[in-house]
Every structure is written in structure tokens, then in C-alpha cells.
């Protein structure tokens, strides 16, 4: 996969202006540059009355306008309920064989390497404190930034310095080779969003979502919550549970995890729902499907916090703060219980 680096910042921070200066500097180094830019506007770069405009608006779902110097490919998405585009979806539409680096403007909430652009005069909060994927901080107030930021700090008014940082990062990024587990060659290429293919032996690996289980252990109007003892999310709340092992059913995984973490034997669990989740561990992003079960108790058992759990506690559902949970799947599960209890 082509190395990707993004530029994250609030509207008006100068992302486009900076990119306009960076791209020629990177091109001078012989790099072939791709760009993905997210927009919330309903844009149409074509001109009304032109042949391509007329044909597109006649009802084409895809239109390719081809000239000697430029191809323009249009995709039309007419479904009103369509979500905002995901970065992985956009990346698949680029010809990565013709690119050395992809620059991304926007998509600041997605997980990929980013440089934050920050102007203190705009009085907006910094992003890096809540985004571990931000690898550098560029600003027009260097002295002020050094008081709070431990990341590499770059002068927003010195685009050459930022270009040099990207070139250094790119050199490190491009040396991270993927070795094929079948033939052993350093030729395993990533094809977003989930496929690894070997250019040497045609080995193909589909990096599908991993299955996990969550337990909502309830007694009257209380639910048992755990405090995580390890990263990711160390010190934050979670629901008891974990990953499903090979050759294991969801129910077997739930039974094993609750015994490992709580010394608790579950006898009756009811499946409620499943939620997509992202699990970050040692700079690797794992996509998971977290399945949620509810265990309803007549009395509180004696429990022991073990394994990944630092401590457990009973909290009234109505008193739970969802933002204290480490993962979105647990937040959704608890919110579903709270919604049900309020009916």
C-alpha cells in the first residue's frame, strides 16, 4: 500500500494553503503524489452545458472523461441515506502503482498517520491529546507549543521544514516491508481495506474482523463494570469479555473470559446485539465485531479481578458516564441497556 499521511486541523487552520506549498517541494524530490480531500459540500467540478456534464446528468452512475493529458472519473451516489465516505473507500479508487505518497486533507477522525495544523489565535483545542495517530504538530506559535506538546514541532511558516519531516518519515515508512508467510519474500502488499497479496507467489490473506464477546452482568438496576489493567485503554472502564479463540463458539468464549477475568461461572446469558469496534494494540489496528450478552443475577456473587482486569465495581445504570469507557462497542452496549431501562 502507498504510504499515507494526513493533515488534521479545524476549518480555517490552513490545511489547503500548506498543502499547496508542500506538494511542489515533494515533487522536486521525484515523488509521485496522490491527494484525497474530504468535503462536506455538494461539489460539481464540471461545467453546465459541456458534453460530459450533459451525459453525466442524463443518468450515468460512473463517467470517465479521458484526454491526452488528464482523466477525470466521476462516481454518482444518489442514495439520500448514504454516509460520509470512508478513507479506505476513497483510497481504493487511486492507482497505487503510479504513486509514491498519498496526502490526505480531512478525515481527521480516522486512524492513520497525521500532522496536526494548529493556530492558537483561532482558540480551538488541540487534537493530538485525543489522537495517538498524530505524529507531528505544526503551528505558527512554536514557543507556546513547546510548553505543552511532546511531539515533533514544525513551523507552519516554514513548509520546507515540514517537507523534510515528511521525507524522513517516508524513508522510515517505506523500509517497513511485509514478508510473505508462504514464500518468505518481502513482497506482501496491502490492498485496502483488508487484503494482503504477495507479488511473488500470489499468496492472499484476508485480514477480516476478529470476533469478541462482551458481558453485561446485571443485578437489579446495577451493572458490573471493569477497570482495564492494560493498554489499550488502561485505567478506563470496560465490560468483562475478550476475544474469541480459534475453534471456540461465542458462548464458550464468554464462559472462558468471565472465568479468567472474574472467577465467575456463567449459567445463563442472553445474546443482545453486536457492534463493530476498533482495537489499537502496539500501533496495530484490529477491526473487531463485538457481541454483547446480558447476564441477569438474583444476587451479587463474590468476584475476583484477574487477568486484564484491575478492579470491578457495581454501578447504577443511570449513573454511568459513557465517555469513561475505553471502547465504542461497550458504550453502545451500555447505552442500549440504559435505553431499555428507561422504557
Task: Fill in the keyword field for this structure.
seven-stranded mixed β-sheet, 7 helices, 343 residues, Nucleoside Triphosphate Pyrophosphohydrolase, 3 domains, alpha/beta, Rossmann fold
Reading off the top of the CATH hierarchy, the class of the largest domain is best stated as: Alpha Beta
- SSE succession: EHEHEEHEEEHEHEEEEEEEHEEEH
- Helical percentage: 10-25%
Largest sheet: 7 strands, mixed
Total domains: 3
Given helix and strand content, the structural type is: alpha/beta
The geometry reads as: globular
> Would you count the extended β strands for me?
18
Helices and strands, with pairings:
Blueprint: E1 4-8, H1 15-27, E2 33-37, H2 51-57, E3 62-66, E4 71-75, H3 87-91, E5 101-105, E6 114-118, E7 134-139, H4 142-145, E8 153-155, H5 159-174, E9 188-191, E10 195-198, E11 204-206, E12 210-219, E13 222-228, E14 237-238, E15 241-243, H6 250-262, E16 270-281, E17 284-297, E18 309-316, H7 328-341
Parallel strand pairs: 1-5, 1-6, 2-5, 6-7, 7-8, 12-17
Antiparallel strand pairs: 3-4, 9-10, 10-11, 12-13, 12-15, 13-14, 13-18, 16-17
Please provide a written account of the structure.
With 343 residues, the chain is α/β, with parallel strands linked by helices. Strands 12, 13, 14, 15, 16, 17 and 18 form a seven-stranded mixed sheet that branches. Strands 2-5-1-6-7-8 form a six-stranded parallel sheet. It is built from seven helices and 18 strands. The chain has three domains: 4-40 and 84-174, P-loop containing nucleotide triphosphate hydrolases (Rossmann fold); 178-207, no CATH class; 210-341, Alpha-Beta Complex (Nucleoside Triphosphate Pyrophosphohydrolase), CATH 3.90.79.10. It has helices at 15-27, 51-57, 87-91, 142-145, 159-174, 250-262, 328-341; strands spanning 4-8, 33-37, 62-66, 71-75, 101-105, 114-118, 134-139, 153-155, 188-191, 195-198, 204-206, 210-219, 222-228, 237-238, 241-243, 270-281, 284-297, 309-316.
Amino acid at each position: 500500500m502507498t504510504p499515507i499521511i494526513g493533515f488534521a486541523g479545524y476549518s480555517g487552520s490552513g490545511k489547503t494553503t500548506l498543502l499547496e506549498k508542500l506538494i511542489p517541494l515533494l515533487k522536486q524530490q521525484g515523488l509521485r503524489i496522490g491527494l484525497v480531500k474530504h468535503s462536506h459540500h455538494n461539489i460539481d467540478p464540471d461545467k453546465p452545458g459541456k458534453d460530459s456534464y450533459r451525459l453525466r446528468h442524463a443518468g450515468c452512475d460512473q463517467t470517465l472523461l479521458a484526454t491526452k493529458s488528464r482523466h477525470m472519473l466521476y462516481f454518482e451516489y444518489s442514495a439520500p441515506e448514504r454516509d460520509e465516505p470512508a478513507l479506505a473507500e476513497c483510497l481504493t479508487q487511486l492507482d497505487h502503482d503510479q504513486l509514491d505518497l498519498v496526502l490526505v486533507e480531512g478525515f481527521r477522525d480516522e486512524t492513520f498517520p497525521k500532522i496536526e495544523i494548529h493556530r492558537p489565535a483561532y482558540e480551538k483545542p488541540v487534537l493530538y491529546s485525543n489522537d495517538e495517530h498524530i505524529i507531528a504538530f505544526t503551528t505558527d506559535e512554536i514557543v507556546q507549543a513547546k510548553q505543552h506538546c511532546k511531539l515533533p514541532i514544525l513551523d507552519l511558516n516554514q513548509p520546507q521544514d515540514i517537507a523534510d519531516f515528511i521525507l524522513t518519515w517516508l524513508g522510515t515508512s517505506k523500509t517497513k516491508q511485509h514478508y510473505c508467510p508462504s514464500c518468505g519474500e518481502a513482497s506482501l502488499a496491502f490492498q485496502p481495506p483488508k487484503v494482503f497479496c504477495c507479488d511473488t507467489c500470489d499468496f492472499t490473506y484476508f485480514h477480516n474482523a476478529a470476533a469478541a464477546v462482551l458481558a453485561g452482568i446485571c443485578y437489579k438496576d446495577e451493572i458490573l463494570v471493569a477497570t482495564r489493567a492494560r493498554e489499550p485503554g488502561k485505567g478506563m472502564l470496560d465490560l468483562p469479555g475478550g476475544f474469541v479463540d480459534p475453534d471456540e463458539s461465542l458462548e464458550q468464549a464468554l464462559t472462558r473470559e468471565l472465568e479468567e477475568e472474574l472467577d465467575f461461572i456463567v449459567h445463563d446469558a442472553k445474546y443482545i446485539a453486536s457492534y463493530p469496534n476498533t482495537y489499537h494494540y502496539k500501533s496495530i489496528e484490529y477491526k473487531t465485531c463485538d457481541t454483547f450478552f446480558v447476564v441477569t443475577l438474583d444476587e451479587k456473587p463474590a468476584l475476583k479481578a484477574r487477568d486484564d482486569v484491575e478492579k470491578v465495581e457495581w454501578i447504577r445504570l443511570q449513573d454511568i458516564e459513557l465517555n469513561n469507557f475505553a471502547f465504542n462497542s461497550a458504550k453502545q452496549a451500555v447505552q442500549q441497556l440504559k435505553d431499555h431501562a428507561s422504557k
